[in-house]
Amino acid sequence: MQPQMSSSPVIPLVEQNKLEPENLEFNDAPRVIWIRVKDAINLIWQQNPKLHSQSDLRSSIAKFGFQELPKFDNQLVNVRGTRGAIKAGNGRVEALYEMEREGNFSLPRGLARDKATDDWVLPILFGTDAPNEALAQAYGLDSNNITLGDNFDIWQMAQLWDREGYSNLLRSFQAENVYPVSMNENDIKDYLRIFDNGIAGKSFDETVAGGVQVEAVFKIRLPVDDVEAIEAPLKEFLEQFPQARMEKIV
To answer: What is the model's pTM?
Structure first.
């Protein structure tokens, strides 16, 4: 069966409100370009320190189809050492490459097949490039960190990344005085200080890796009869610090 363009119905709400391109004024709007998967693998971001579960990515694509388009940026350096690389979606491109190479998967939904060569072809978003490499890298980091949710600290976010590659990326932000939305200058200083020096004589790997959080602990000792009187104002005070938590031991 030949793969077809999607025939999924457009709901009336969309059909009634869609606008034609000729009636719009664009501000560097992205465009979709179709590229063979075996060629797209050469567009992987060379310095990308993101960790991926390739088996989970392959299973997800096989089950749900290819749902998220990779985003290209001309400012990044690819694995061939030339300018122009994928800044978001590298793991999915790698997963597609392995799926096609292994030959055990049918063409996932959301992809096309080259009629001449039978190669898998995927859509990639081009446009809205960053003005420089540092900002392109910052977006690549933020596109993962921000989507984690609210109140994730720098150590929790760091679990997404290869430690050495991540620290090198953060050092480059310091050098360029460019910072992601998900962390500021002080966050990066704190992270790199622990990465370089460890904590209390222990190395970064022993102390911080694997999700161990660096915390300060305050203890308040008082008679049991006074617990109820102090508990409510303490809770109200701690609302100013979303990451703080109170543990009561009687």
So the answer is: 0.74
What CATH number is given for 12-126 in this structure?
A: 3.90.1530
Taking the alpha carbons at both ends of the chain, their separation in whole angstroms is 69
Q: What is the pLDDT of residues 68-107, one digit of tens each?
A: 999 999 999 999 999 999 999 999 999 999 999 999 999 9
**CA–CA gap between residue 162 and residue 168 (Å, rounded):** 10
User: Where in the sequence of the chain do the CATH 3.90.1530 domains occur?
Assistant: 12-126
**172 Rama class: left (phi>0) / alpha (psi -120 to 50) / beta:** alpha
